[in-house]
Amino acid sequence: MDITTVTTTPFTDQRPGTSGLRKKVAVFRQPHYLENFVQSIYDALEGVEGQTLVVGGDGRYYNRPAIQTIVKMAAANGFGRVLVGRGGILSTPAASCVIRKQHAYGGIILSASHNPGGPDGDFGVKYNIGNGGPAPEKVTEAMFQRSKEITAYRTVEAPDIDLDTLREQRLGQMRVEIIDPVADYAALMEELFDFDAIHALFNSGLFHMRFDAMHAVTGPYALEILEQRLGAQPGTVMNGVPLEDFGGGHPDPNLTYAPELVEIMNGATAPDFGAASDGDGDRNMVLGRRFFVTPSDSLAILAANAKLAPGYAHGLAGIARSMPTSCAADRVAEALGIECYETPTGWKFFGNLLDAGKVTLCGEESFGTGSDHVREKDGLWAVLFWLNVIAKRQQAVEDIVREHWTRFGRNFYTRHDYEEVDSAAAQQMMTELRTRLATLPGQRHGDYVIDSADDFSYTDPIDHSVSSGQGLRILFAEGERIIFRLSGTGTAGATLRVYVESYELDPSRHHQDTQETLAPLIALADQLAGIRQRTGRDRPTVIT
Ligand code: G1P
Ligand code: ZN
Fold first, then answer.
1. Average pLDDT over residues 411-418
2. The predicted structure's pLDDT at residue 375
3. DSSP characters for 208-249?
4. If I label 518, which of 229, 232, 305, 328 is the partner at 20 to 30 A Cα–Cα?
5. Rounded to 5 degrees, what angle do the CA atoms 448, 452, 457 make?
6. 113 noted as active-site residue
7. Which domains are present in the chain?
8. 325 pocket-lining for ligand 1 (C-beta < 6 Å)
9. What is the model's pTM?
10. Which residues pair with 515 in a beta bridge?
11. pLDDT of residue 223
């Protein structure tokens, strides 16, 4: 098979962010754009000759043509074998699982996570290393540097491979295997959770659930695992067919973007348990009957109940949470006598801790929960973990959460997002607040006394790398926190995220409404940073 070298000129905007290179589809469709970036990935890797590469994506628009390009270029760059999920499908956690299980060199995941898809939507390319996790910054930086110098890329002239049949094909010297995207992942879930107990729960006829796959990648996974293997009633999985534009929706499992599920769970005949996952299957939302479980609480509750799941029966080595995630998990860690690590936002910061065996569970407030079973957050895993806990405790979701609060106290928590605000104004607001941080400690605002304030900086305990500028933190005397940070994943303007938290030990106050309870702190956040004045917005776009 002939290798063709195609002359090209660099693009200057191919710096991968925390979740890979994410751009509008139109940007990726420019001639040579995808090819340049893929060649930059291959050039940044060493010793790929004869190695195995895993390729798959969330099924969004442009997934299939991109896979053809990536596979042909892999053949021209010397890979020995490529494993592709059938139909080009692999959820992000399943890709991580396959990379690990098949001892692959790495993998390319095509996804823009929860961002809308379709010809006018977003697309993304992310490289994961051999441990199954996102490439660390030194690797993505090497890719970016390469992309700025690239003058040619290599590919092979060949007909498109058949993505839809489970079989082996050849591209020159390289083997292409189309694999069942669910098999390895489902087998891993069976090892971790008590499938018999969950099966009995569904079989009892007394327990019903709805899982909203949001027309995204988890449809086939949820159908196979929940309805086929665990015997959940047919129809448990809704929106289970992956569509290239996610049915026009915004595949982000939260109270704003999953209104269909939220309505069902708030209805008079709501099932016992509701859950949803995002575009690429790494996020999760968990709901009880007329009850929302915050992701921060979910992490804490799974940690407190971990021994009920066979995969975690021996206990947890430690827990990690991103800095803006509520401190609920810290209290569980304390009770268990284990460490709770506080990392910057982004899943990649958990990788070293997981690899070193320092933590077993980790999570973020942004609907991400996971463990050392893969190196990505994992939506369906979290749902199965909850099912395992419910099956063992034989309690309603709300009762499990309320008992948890009674034992550990409740962290009232909310996140306010101001999306697509003017970048310069947002930057300026942050800069000004940063310069005033040192003056804040000791200030009293109504009932609240500021204890300390800083710009969060993290030193990785394993490789000692330092990540600074990770968000402005204002910490109060009674455990309240206000945090400001700018999103690193948006594709238009800036997104300001404001995280507000308080702590309440008294069970008689646990029934209070979150927004009402936090209202004085929310007002204080605006007063301290001048959000309304700077952004020109009088309210957030999304409240979680
Ligand atoms: C957001 C979330 C963050 C998550 C990331 C990728 O990033 O806040 O927790 O890791 O998406 O899913 P942000 O837009 O805040 O930078
Ligand atoms: Zn995602």
1. 96
2. 96
3. -EEEE-TTSTHHHHHIIIIIIIS-PPTT-EES-S--TTGGGS
4. 305
5. 135
6. yes
7. 3-181 (3.40.120.10), 185-408 (3.40.120.10), 410-543 (3.30.310.50)
8. no
9. 0.94
10. none
11. 98
